[in-house]
Amino acid sequence: MENEELVVGGSIGIARYPHNGKTAEDLIKNADIAMYRAKADGKNTHKVFTPKMLKSVTHRANIERELRRSLADLQQFELWFQPLVCLKTGRIMGAESLVRWRHPVLGVVPPADFIPIAEETAMILPLGQWLIERLCFQIQQWMPYFAHDFHVSINISSKQLYRQNLVEMFAFYMEKYHVPPRTIRMEITESLLLQDEDEAERTLKEIRASGIEVWLDDFGTGYSSLSYLRRFTVDGIKIDQSFVRDIITDSKDQQLVQAMVAMANNLDLLVVAEGIETEDQANTLAQIGCEIGQGYYFDKPMPVDDFVKKLINESESNVIEFKL
């Protein structure tokens, strides 16, 4: 075409009569659903319609509809908190904030059901702004009672990074609630940086210049982990739970985690290990030199009131210990 060679691919959806519909309208609709599944599975393939696909599409449409309605009542959303624990002392050093949606009819909707939809439809922008404000408000409430080094992290999506002025947004709410930047850590994933490395580098420099720390989440699972550490200046890394899960039984995982921790220490970066579920995992990570742990062994994400009660109980009993 005009002296240019074009390579054309195709995603095919198949619906069969009478199994997948007895009218032309139903067959075309179901074939269309199967085609979009083929695209979602990597394109240039084919999929045959199944009733499960229709159930999935219907569920997604319902979630998207209710999510749009919820933007008029953002109080349906809550920040829950999962403790970040010092692996040597057992002291709670901070928390990761995680959004939960408490729908008046559906109940608590799992994040996996609505976060991807919020990101695809850009509803993550107003929701994300509201969550940043709630985070600053919550930190303000906690500051008189927590240690100087206590901090809370928040996850940032790609649309927030590239379509919102996060520097101004954080600055506005930190000033509004009198929150010092040292109490906030911003977590980003490696895949987020892939979209526009130049823009990401500029924004992250401005974020760090404002005093907010930037951490690289799910470290080790992307394609360019080491090159990102060379190009982007971050304050810490979070080792993905896939490396922690078999750290006791798989020597390769243990050696990989040990190498990550040693590298981070040499680069003067802090390290958080995610997905800790057993005492043995916690002890092994502490022996390797990992400073901070997070996972169900310590606690699941919990509503703010439960998190405060845990902190109060910990300060009174101080019974969390590890065998090192």
UniProtKB/TrEMBL annotation:
SUPFAM superfamilies from the UniProt entry: EAL domain-like, Nucleotide cyclase
Domain GGDEF: start-end pairs: 1-51
PANTHER family: CYCLIC DI-GMP PHOSPHODIESTERASE PDEF, SIGNALING PROTEIN YKOW
GO MF: cyclic-guanylate-specific phosphodiesterase activity
Main enzyme class: hydrolase
EC number: 3.1.4.52
Coiled-coil ranges (or none): none
Full protein name: cyclic-guanylate-specific phosphodiesterase
Organism per entry: Vibrio maritimus
Every EAL domain range: 60-315
Gene3D superfamilies (UniProt xref): 3.30.70.270, EAL domain (3.20.20.450)
Swiss-Prot/TrEMBL keywords: c-di-GMP
